[in-house]
Specification:
The chain has seven helices and no strands. The chain is an all-alpha fold. The chain has one domain.
Length: 150
């Protein structure tokens, strides 16, 4: 057997083998009392856009795509979600100090303005998460007003 064929078989066996390595899923049926949507009166239009564009990575309940069942994609998503929740978790937003809430809200505004969020790698697969200029403006205005009221 040629070396190329042996390498291909080994890679196939490894690929099949890693499919059985489990990942931790970020899913919960509970809506936390500290969720930003519960703690603050969020207009329905803003709530919908935040949930579509932000919640998969920045909450305790990810709506996983079909390709999350394939390794190593599942590992990548698991790491990405863990890191995103460490930075900002909308499900625990009400538990943050007022100072931290203000800082996070300011950061959200800056990242929306600078087109850093939602990530292009996310919007590539989730076209409905793309923010139009008017949606960005609406989000920025609402977030600014919330920040000012804290």
């Amino acid at each position: 057997m040629k070396i190329g064929k042996k390498v291909a078989i080994i890679l196939l066996v490894v690929f099949l083998g890693i499919q059985f390595v489990p990942t931790k899923r970020n899913q919960s049926d509970n809506i936390s009392a500290s969720d930003i949507m519960i703690v603050y009166k969020v207009p329905e239009q803003i709530e919908n856009k935040i949930k579509v564009s932000c919640y998969d990575c920045h909450s305790n309940n990810t709506q996983y795509p079909w390709y999350n069942k394939i390794q190593p994609v599942a590992w990548f998503l698991e790491g990405h979600i863990k890191k995103a929740k460490e930075e900002l978790n909308f499900s625990e937003f009400g538990d943050y100090s007022k100072r931290r809430q203000k800082n996070k809200l300011k950061s959200i505004i800056n990242q929306i303005r600078d087109n850093e969020m939602p990530l292009s790698s996310y919007t590539f697969m989730h076209k409905d998460a793309v923010l139009s200029e008017s949606e960005k403006s609406e989000l920025e205005n609402w977030i600014s007003n919330l920040r000012d009221s804290l």
